[in-house]
């Protein structure tokens, strides 16, 4: 890649022999092309069995820093997060946290761009509250401390009912970090969630409603969507 003032000269290869050239295109046009490529079209008729929906966007993110800052906001707008891909997502958050201390130019803050997130636990383990030590950072940080801003920063959150305790932990963590010397009624709430979708609900009582933080959180929700459980959910252990 070579840059000439506000123009780019780059060449990208896709799917074998096909080659797309951005030679001498204005930066604004390149940004539009990258945005279009980064946005998956879920409604098209093509089959996706042989290619990841985000494969093109991921390749674009490897080209140069400016392309990451164009493509990542599109990719992060809606996040479907189960525990199959949770480890990779948490590794990315820890990596960004380390970049903040070592290479700030490489850091990309996910939270402002994630508007909708689905969070489930149908496969395997959970984020840990154990602190992770790094030689690059002076303060250890846990998985939950990193993912809390992600969950609470979205405007719409969908979560399995069995994960409600993790949401309660994130809410309590954010609530506890508010300034105790200021009337909390005068402060903006430390979360942005307005639409909460709870799936697979299998009990009527919520422990988080007994906490001041949980009560404040639930009172701030403007839209609550409840999805009933499947038949086999009644045989699963409850962890709320």
Brief summary:
This protein is α/β, with parallel strands linked by helices.
Rough shape?
Answer: globular
Strand content: 15-25%
Could you give a short account of the major beta sheet? 5 strands, parallel
* Average pLDDT figure: 74
Distance between the termini: 52 Å
Pick out the low-confidence regions: 1-19, 133-138
Order of helices and strands: EEEEEHHHEHEEEHEHEHE
Q: What level of helicity do the residues show?
A: 25-40%
In terms of structural class, how would the helical and strand content be classed?
alpha/beta
Distinct helical segment count: 7
Spatial strand order of the main sheet: 6-7-10-11-12
Write down how many β-strands occur, each being a DSSP E stretch of 2 or more residues. 12
How would you portray this structure in words?
This protein is an alpha/beta fold. It has two domains: 76 residues, no CATH class; 164 residues, no CATH class. It has a five-stranded parallel β-sheet with strand order 6-7-10-11-12. It has a three-stranded antiparallel β-sheet with strand order 1-2-5. A two-stranded antiparallel sheet has the order 3-4. Strand 11, helix 7 and strand 12 form a beta-alpha-beta unit. The N terminus is likely disordered.
